[in-house]
Amino acid sequence: MAATSTAEVSYEAEQWLDGFNAALRAQDTSAVLSLLDPACFWRDLIALTWNIITVEGRDAVAAMLDATLDSAQLREVVLAEPAARGPDGTVEAWLQFRTRAGRGLGHVRLRDGAAVTVLTALRALDGHEERRGPRRPLGVEHGAIRDRRSWLERRSEEAAALGRDVQPEVLVIGGGQAGIVLGARLRQLDVATVVVDRHPRPGDQWRRRYKSLCLHDPVWMDHLPYLPFPDTWPVFAPKDRIADWLELYVQVMDIDYWGSTIARAARFDRSSERWDVTLEREGEVVRLRPRQLVLATGVSGRPNVPVLPGQERFAGEQHHSSAHPGADGYAGRRAVVIGSNNSAFDICAALWERGADVTMVQRSSTHVVRSETARDIIFKRLYSEEAVAAGIDADRADLISASLPYRLAAGVHRAIYDQVREHDREFYARLEGAGFKHDFGPDGTGMSMKFLRRASGYYIDVGAAELVIDGRIRLVQGRVARLAEEAVVMEDGTALPADLVVYATGYGPMSEWVAELISPEVASRVGPIWGLGSGTERDPGPWEGELRNLWKPTAQPGLWIHAGNLALVRHYSLYLALQLKARAAGIPTSVYSPGGPAGLDFNSNV
Amino acid sequence: MAATSTAEVSYEAEQWLDGFNAALRAQDTSAVLSLLDPACFWRDLIALTWNIITVEGRDAVAAMLDATLDSAQLREVVLAEPAARGPDGTVEAWLQFRTRAGRGLGHVRLRDGAAVTVLTALRALDGHEERRGPRRPLGVEHGAIRDRRSWLERRSEEAAALGRDVQPEVLVIGGGQAGIVLGARLRQLDVATVVVDRHPRPGDQWRRRYKSLCLHDPVWMDHLPYLPFPDTWPVFAPKDRIADWLELYVQVMDIDYWGSTIARAARFDRSSERWDVTLEREGEVVRLRPRQLVLATGVSGRPNVPVLPGQERFAGEQHHSSAHPGADGYAGRRAVVIGSNNSAFDICAALWERGADVTMVQRSSTHVVRSETARDIIFKRLYSEEAVAAGIDADRADLISASLPYRLAAGVHRAIYDQVREHDREFYARLEGAGFKHDFGPDGTGMSMKFLRRASGYYIDVGAAELVIDGRIRLVQGRVARLAEEAVVMEDGTALPADLVVYATGYGPMSEWVAELISPEVASRVGPIWGLGSGTERDPGPWEGELRNLWKPTAQPGLWIHAGNLALVRHYSLYLALQLKARAAGIPTSVYSPGGPAGLDFNSNV
Q1: Is residue B137's pLDDT more than 80?
Q2: Residue A214 near chain B (CB below 8 Å)
Q3: What part of B 487-506 touches A (C-beta under 8 Å)?
Q4: Which phi and psi (to 5°) does residue A553 adopt?
Q5: Given A215, A226, A232, which is nearest B188 (Cβ)?
Q6: Are B560 and B551 in contact, with CB atoms under 8 Å apart?
Q7: Does position B568 have pLDDT exceeding 60, yes or no?
Q8: Which of A4, A480, A543, B148 has its CA at a distance of 20 to 30 angstroms from the CA of residue A361?
Q9: Spatial distance between the Cα atoms of B61 and B92, rounded to a whole number of angstroms
Q10: How many helices (H) and strands (E) does chain B have?
């Protein structure tokens, strides 16, 4: 019978750590391997590898350790808190450790004295710690200082000089949540950064969307770093609240944010190891020469607008969902919305609520999960009031999520969505009874894995499913053949009368932006962005085990990709910021890539 | 020997609580008294008395209990956490309790089984809880709702209607930190409130002050409710940062804030039990009819500008410190600053830093405490990074402060300032050696009691004292007789050449605003505002044991006064908001005043 008390479990973890630290001190790969299960997963977030990778199995771990133990100097691995027995019977332990560059947090799951999963995450660089808590700035300068300048004066001068007299170290293109959060982290790390966005104000990316939009993730998933929402914040924030929050966050966190700025072109200059970026800032051309370029324009590329015969003859209004102004003005009008994912449902519902006659065209199967069910079954353990009461704040929840290798995540999610299916059996029966094509993903792993694999293919139901079920939103299956003057005509010849056509048909891949901004050659060299390589629909292999090209060195020196929902950008912006800081500070960053030559440092200045 | 383990100490407290609860259940005043030390202090924050009072000694406690036990129904008093042995050897216990109206927190210090201090603080009204944490709003409305309105639309309409189609329940005059924090609390309690201020934007009260101004209280004292500063916030925030924070706080907390609005007159209409308030809002006259009127214009009244012969002939610039634009433009000029408190020192230092020739005129003795010393000795226990690490957040620190009756506070502070005196012995010797008249208050209780008694008479030294010590700021003692064309002339005939005269001569009492806005008769009936009645300079008796007229019913129905530094307004705004909510909700609020007739409800609608 396994030990159960905290003390016994911690003792077991400490025994393991004794051996682990001894093996690390000796830089003895085989001694480390002897402490790992043969099928062990080791996930490293820039602690050993200056990369974000999961290596699977003893051979891959051995290759990683051989290449990194000497350079990384992982050491002094200790329990961060008492160990605990996990739900699967393993001993779970949170760890603290040191490396050559700084300090980190880790996690290990032990079964029969061998690690089945290991997480190592670098969290701070020695000598470059964030100025938080005990390290916070004093604010006032005590003493008598001739020609003292106030904080406002210094801040204004600094902002005016950046990009004019002083080149930024980092340029972030895209000022949505991803760009803003990264800007905040880089400010705390003293890395001169400019965040640019084509919209005038921070938050406009949300503000300008259709007016019924609310976050689909609950508040506990959505906190930004440093400044959590107040506990009066709604569970599902309306888009204008999020917009305003992002705007004030930019101000509070002293982010150098250039609105109304369009990135026209970027070219990496091998000799100077700087980018040459052409921006159009409020109509004026500005050229910047940053060392590092971060694309944070969202997972999505250009709007996918299907090309259909007859579009030019259509007498009504037609636009992509990203350009949909909201339902006002469409009362009594006939709307056809092509698509059946989140945006399609949200837009159909708002149009119905406003009194339009609405038809949804479903082209392929969609996964639907009810918002209440998502909250109660999917998110509750990590992101909920109950989790907060159990001491799981957003950062801890993120680390718990990160401790589970993506290969194993599918199984965990399949079990969760089995519960969802059972919980809402009657709902799904009615939805399918109404003719809606529904799936739980290719392997029953639901929304969570669809998000990671393809960032599409689902709807979090906040009420519109019932409109489809009872026919208030008309549902039509099949593919659109063409547009007539006043109708959408399906392949089977059915004509759907229409004054408005909304193409809720998704977006192209993010690589399109890379090709457009830099070059098709670089886009092709960098390869796919997002997706795990699961080999499922829209996520072709090979298996990568991490989100591709996100938050880590790419095949293009100085080019970084940053994207994700609020939870992902909150967590992974830390590792991206630390990588950028390390390069700015001249800290050696030998990047290890599985499969690639060991120690290849293809994205370092050092 | 007294018990020392937590369990033993908690047992002692629980024994006491058993008797206390039994006595409360029986509504038996003498049984309660038998559990109190004869010299017991009982501080009540609206839990028993719907008043903020400290009653001292058994007789006064008996009178309070006789008048309130039946109406308040204090009951179910239990330990909120294990009890602890206090520094003075008493058993200290944090309590939770219920009353007829709601739930509260309490604190008791026991010596030999008898209470020497009791605190009872109402913290929430049953059925009117704040929408926080598990009670937070959902944000999105699930389902399909015809003609749904977005959050932004509803919020905009609500704001537009308030004061036009809908009369506010509460009007707060003064939109500095006090008014803003109260507005936030009333919003959470669903009390329709308008906060007005004569400046255009929230934070202008800080923004428009001299540019070197920083907070003199460290960050841990300064948090606003609901939305604490991020842990990157500076220890002593520059005024523009605080200004910006207040502005965004107004937005995030959905406060109906009317800038550029001057309150011209207010009259209480006995028959309707509403105020008739005349405002000038952006030049337009607006009349409001709130039930409750809160003055939050600051402890200070009108600037005190001394009337001196020759002022009209003075050729240079002269203004009160409140109108001082900052030191820019005064390089090389001869400045005479009259006064020797915080503003005088700050202004002198900034003028010197800018290159002016500066003279400070000290008219009477001032207490000086070095900022570092204040931080290390005075604030550290409750408001510091160390306190946070020990689990003392701002709310807990506030409650700890509140648990100490003001009568006893003087002794505690005297001991603290004895440490300060010893710590900075050499500094004070040099300061006095430079001719500066220095004191630690009439009874050696330093800045903390000066603040509570008179809100003046001290300087928190951030560097200017050294300028006075070494003569870079010239120090002149005595009274000013008159102004000449280019000089300030002292009573002893000394002429101080001057291009600029700054009157850092303080402010009149807050009652001046009451007289001006409402009437001299009401100002006189309400009586002094601020001060404890300590009988020391500028705080004449009789002893009141609380800050006079602050956050509690005044002698004028429907009139409330709200003021203080950030720490005080953070904490006491809760009790003020609960009193206003109780009246709005028709909850019986029988006010007990010591000395007054029991149960007199002179400020309730019920």
Answers
A1: yes
A2: yes
A3: none
A4: -55, 140
A5: A232
A6: yes
A7: yes
A8: B148
A9: 20
A10: 19, 27
Residue from B140, B221, B255 whose CB has the most chain A CBs within 10 Å, to mutate: B140
Q: Which tokens hold the place of A475?
A: 């549902």
pLDDT higher at B360 or A302: B360
Whether B437 contacts B73, CB under 8 Å: no
Q: What is the mean pLDDT of residues B77-95?
A: 95
Q: Got the DSSP string for A387-401?
A: HHHTT--HHHHHHHH
Q: Quick check: bond before B542 cis, omega within 30? A: yes
Q: How many CA atoms lie within 13 A of A302 on its CB side?
A: 9
Cα gap A334→A339, rounded to integer Å: 16
Predicted ipTM? 0.92
Query: Is B165 in contact with B157 (CB distance < 8 Å)?
Result: no
Using the structure block, give the residue that is written with the tokens 């199995």. A57
Q: How far is CA B235 from CA A134, B242, B347, in A?
A: 10, 12, 21
Rounded to a whole number, what is the distance in Å from the CA of B30 to chain A's nearest CA? 41
For tokens 């905009």, name the residue: B156
User: Alpha carbon A332 to chain centroid distance?
Assistant: 39
Name the closest residue on chain B to residue A461, using Cα atoms: B142
The radius of gyration of chain A's CA atoms, rounded to the nearest angstrom, is 26
DSSP string, A304-334: -----TTTTT--SEEEEGGG---STT-TT-E
A145: its two tokens: 């200082």
pLDDT of residue A33: 98
Distance CA A292, CA A551 (A): 13
A110 bridge partner residues: A91, A115
- Alpha carbon dihedral B128, B132, B134, B136, in 10-degree steps, equals 90
DSSP assignment of B582-604, as one string? Answer: HHHTT-------TTSPTT--TT-
Chain A residues whose beta carbon lies within 8 Å of the beta carbon of residue B236? 138-140
pLDDT < 70: residue spans in chain A: 1-4, 595-606
3-state secondary structure of A408: helix
Q: Say which DSSP state A196 is in.
A: E
Contact A109, A91 (CB under 8 A): yes
Q: Which of residues 217-246 of B touch A (CB under 8 A)?
A: 219, 226-227, 230-238, 240-241, 244-245
Where do we find the tokens 């990384």?
A72
Instruction: State how far the alpha carbon of B55 is from the alpha carbons of B43, B51, B319, in Å.
Output: 6, 11, 44
Query: Phi/psi zone of residue A22: left (φ > 0), alpha (ψ -120 to 50 degrees), beta?
Result: alpha
Q: Does B231 sit within 8 Å of A138, measured CB to CB? A: no
- What SS3 class is residue A345? helix
Six token digits for residue A541 = 């292999």
Sheet containing strand B487-490, strands side by side: B480-484, B487-490, B495-497
Beta bridge partners of B536: B539
What tokens were used for A599?
């120690």
User: Which position has the token pair 């507005």?
Assistant: B183
d(C-alpha B499, C-alpha B515), whole Å:
36
**Is the link from the previous residue into B520 a cis peptide, with omega within 30 of 0?**
no
Q: Alpha-carbon distance A601 to A591, whole Å?
A: 5
The whole-angstrom separation of Cα A477 and Cα A480 is 9
**Can you tell me whether residue A374 is helix, strand or coil?**
helix
How close is the nearest chain B Cα to the Cα of A118, in Å?
30
CB-CB: which of A136, A140, A231 is closest to B233? Answer: A136
| pLDDT tens digits for range A500-542 | 999 999 999 999 999 999 999 999 999 999 999 999 999 999 9
Q: Over chain B, what is the mean pLDDT?
A: 94
Q: What's the pLDDT score for residue A3?
A: 45
Spatial separation of the C-alpha atoms in residues A455 and A506, rounded to whole Å: 10
In A, minimum Cα distance to B237 occurs at A139
Q: Confirm if B310 and B481 have CB atoms less than 8 A apart.
A: no
